[in-house]
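Re-run with default settings, no changes from the original entry. Doing this only to confirm the output is reproducible before filing.
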Amino acid sequence: MIEEGLKNELAKQGVVVTTIQELYNWGRSNSVWPLSFGLACCAIEMMAASMAKWDIARFGSEVFRPSPRQADLMIVAGTVTKKMAPQVVRLYNQMPEPKYIIAMGACAISGGPFKQGYNVLKGIDRLLPVDIHIPGCPPRPEALLHALITLQKKIESQVLTGPNRPRHLDAAAPSEFPVPEFGEHDIVPAMNPQLWKPRLVVR
C-alpha cells in the first residue's frame, strides 16, 4: 500500500497512483443505474430527482433502465402491497449482480400509515436485502440524492477479497430470493428468515 502523503505528492506532479480495487469500486459507484419502476407517491419524488432542479445525472445515475437485466439499483419507492410483493421480488431476482436496494419512504420501510392493513407488506426488508433506508412520507428528492451518495460510499469501501467481501463476490451467498405466493391468509413465505427475524418483545 502507498502512503496517502506520497500519493498526494505524486498527484501534484501529474502521476496518479491507485489500486485495482479503488479503480473497480470507483467505476461501479459512479455508474449506478436504477430500475425504472415505482409503486406509489414516493415514485413522484424519485422522478423529480431526475429533473433539472436536482439532476441525479451528477451522480451518474440518470440512466433509469426499463429492464431489470440492465439495472443494478432497485429503488422501492412507495407502498408494497402483498399483491405486488411477488412481482418486486421477481424483478430483483432478474437483476444481475452486483445489485443494491434503496427502500424509499415510510411505506417501503415499515408499511407507513398502512401498517395495520391486512394487504400491505410491513417493510420490503422482510423479503429482500435493503442497503439504504430513506425515512419520510414522502421523502424529498434531496433525501434520495443523499441515499445515493451513501450507497456510493458503501460501494467505494467494499473490499474485493477476504471474509468481508460483498455478497456478489461470495459464491456461497444467494443472489436470488424466494418469490412469495398467495396463501390462504397471507403470502407464503411471509418473510425470509435469512434476512429478517421478528424482535422478541418482553412484556
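The chain has a mean pLDDT of 89. Residues 105 and 136 are 5 Å apart (CA to CA).
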